[in-house]
Amino acid sequence: MKYINTELLNRVTAEAKNSPRKRMNYNFHKNGEELLQRMLNALEPETYLPPHRHTKQVEIFLLLRGKITVVFFDDIGNVIEIMKLDPKSGEHGIEIPTGVWHTILAEVSGSVIYEIKQGPYVPNTGMEFAPWAPEPSEGDACELYLAGLREKIQNL
Q1: Contact 51/131 with Cβ under 8 angstroms?
Q2: How many domains does the chain have?
Q3: Which of 35, 39, 108, 147 is deepest in the core (most CB within 10 A)?
């Protein structure tokens, strides 16, 4: 049995807070070869998830605690839709179709999602990063991009 409880959420959140990327995965699948990939993703507000799209799979996640904003883009990086998830307001999760540009912004500390994707997981395949957004290695550019994105979505 595998249980998802407050103790596990707190542990993964603590690891995210101490991680340079300000996020942490906890995998329920044994390896990348499994046909169903299941994981927790603890996300802190400072984390930068580069806008991306999955080219071969649907992405599904449920917000277990916290608040996040899912941002959708067109092919040139314009924000076309946002979805605010907050279990307290009745918005629990989302299924993102193949080929849709998106990113996730953690709005509060301690936010954790349960993510489900079709496997197997093969690194560097099936996911395309947006050419109009900074790469994670571009630290200052990522911070500026996040700040600008947060400002844009406040006005939507």
Answers
A1: no
A2: 1
A3: 39
What does the alpha-carbon distance between residue 119 and residue 148 come to, in Å, rounded to a whole number? 34
Residue 10 host element (H or E): helix 6-18
Domain that holds residue 134: 6-154
pLDDT tens track for 26-37: 999 988 888 899
What does the angle CA 86 – CA 90 – CA 91 come to, to the nearest 5 degrees? 50
CATH of residue 129's domain is 2.60.120.10
- Residue 156 reports pLDDT greater than 90: no
Cα radius of gyration rounded to whole Å, the chain: 15
Choice between 74 and 33, residue whose per-residue pLDDT is larger:
74
Q: Is residue 1 domain-resident? A: no
Question: Residue 78 is encoded by which pair of tokens?
Answer: 């314009």
Cβ(134)–Cβ(49) below 8 Å: no
Record the pTM: 0.93
Q: Is residue 24 part of a domain?
A: yes
86 neighbors 108 (Cβ within 8 angstroms)? no
Strand partners, 61: 94, 115
